[in-house]
Amino acid sequence: MTRVAFITHGRPGQVGDGVERLMGVARDAGVELIVGPDEAARHGLEPHGDPFDAELVVVLGGDGTMLRALRTFLGTRIPVIGVNFGRVGFLSSMQPDELEVGLVRAFRGELEVVRLPTIELENGDAAHIAVNDVVVTSGELGRMVELEWAVGGEDLGSIPCDGIICSTPSGSTAYNLSNGGPVLMWGIDAMATTFVAPHSLHARPLVVPRGKDVVVWNRTPDVPVVVLVDGHRVGEAPPGGRVTVRLGDAHTLLATLPDATFVSRYRAGFST
Q1: Model confidence at 108: pLDDT above 90
Q2: Per-residue confidence band for 177, with pLDDT thresholds at 50, 70 and 90
């Protein structure tokens, strides 16, 4: 590596002296550290270079910061590697006490890059891309909604529930997991669909392959549903409205150290 950019947690204090340590590793390795305008303002530094000219992006933060970085560099050929300054840090390759050793290895090119699928959303005339998940949920707190759904053009009936989650493999360990959905190992080209608090004994999570659209209709007569992309509200579907999701053509590029495998992260994060 010769040029590396970085993205940090939205609260500068969260990463402690992480930026200074990163700068030291880059300096010792002869790597040009690119400082984008947002990070310069956040940490009192001088802007330097264009982050989109980087060969690698280092994230100092948690999974939320990783998500922001993956979205920012979506569609480029720049992979993203994380140092966990958050809580779970499932998408990160190393912990803060491993920063120096881990980044030296990364800058030497000791990396594996995983291509992770995205989800395309259509809601009326609006279109969005999700890195983690698309959530269709009740627009009124405490009100159940009736969602009809179909996969690949085949109807699967209506489910009274609080909502439905459609998640990528990278998003399957987030809101999807907390609602009892399946964890999708990286490398699986599919999305998980999981209902939130279904009032039914027959609503089960479903793993949907590429090429199958998931269509959700709001069949609640008097309650709109809210559509969220990666946790951000992007629109509504009124009674009778519909939302369509499918695996997208774009992929995010997650860089990992060879020993920071999916299974090792899963074991450390969720098996104890």
Answers
A1: yes
A2: very high
- Residues 195, 94, single domain; the answer is no
Q: State the pLDDT confidence band at 89, using cuts at 50, 70 and 90.
A: confident
- The verdict on 184 and 102 lying in the same domain is no
Same domain, 147 and 223: yes
Tell me the catalytic residues.
63
Judgement on whether residues 83 and 128 belong to the same structural domain of the protein: no
User: What tens digit of pLDDT does each residue of 197-256 get?
Assistant: 999 988 999 999 999 999 999 999 999 999 999 999 999 999 999 999 999 999 999 999
pLDDT digits 0-9 by tens, 250-271: 999 999 999 999 999 888 877 6
The pLDDT of residue 272 is above 70: no
Residues in contact with 261: Cβ distance below 8 Å, sequence separation at least 6, in sequence order: none
What domain range is 87 assigned to? Answer: 3-111+257-270
